[in-house]
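Morning F.,

Quick status update on the modeling queue. The single chain you submitted on Monday has been processed. Sequence for confirmation:
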Amino acid sequence: MSANLLSMGAIDFGIIIDGAVVMVEGIFVMLDHKAKHFGMEKFNRMAKLGWIKKTGGELGKAVFFSKLIIIISLIPIFSFQKVEGKMFSPLAWTLGFALLGALLFTLTLVPVLTSILLNKNVREKHNPVVNFFNRIVMGGFNWTYGHKKLSLIIAVLFMGASFGSAKFLGSEFLPQLNEGALWVEAKLPMSMSLNETVEFVRKFRKELGSFPEVNGCCRRRAAPTTAQTPAGSTMCSAR
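Structure tokens below.
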């Protein structure tokens, strides 16, 4: 399967590395809490593989299912046919394999690297920007947990509105293009000479340009630029 800009553009590095970020951040916060509990000097002498294994196992479940949801969402793309299938199936394959590789990397290599790099002097630092957004997010969580029934009703309404809007969607994945351009082809008899073909193409273009709706006309004679369509000198087209 050839690589193209569409399939390569599907690799969103935010989606690829978010699992590793979650894993590293969770282990880092856990180690910071342990350092504060035991003291930094004692913490630096302690073995940390057991803590990292336990925390990595807990975070691995969440990371696995989050990646699995994204991979499952790509399954409908494999049902595409015709032009959309040719265009977007490489995208789904590329992103799917990239997510699987990122998941394997997150569950295996990332915990090992954290055990080596975060072995001593682990301190969690805070900054005003993150604290500001944390207060907003935690405020939203607290309101949601305090109004469980209302939050559930709002979520169900949004879900119903999403399903209701599905009837306004078209059945074709690729929209119909209306560029205002027409492609006219003329197949001439094989017995016509080259000079007669040239004269016909000149009249052909002149007749098409006589219509008031036509702003311009480009014509082509003989075979196309690619060898996919067999055509001789008796075939002409105009756009």
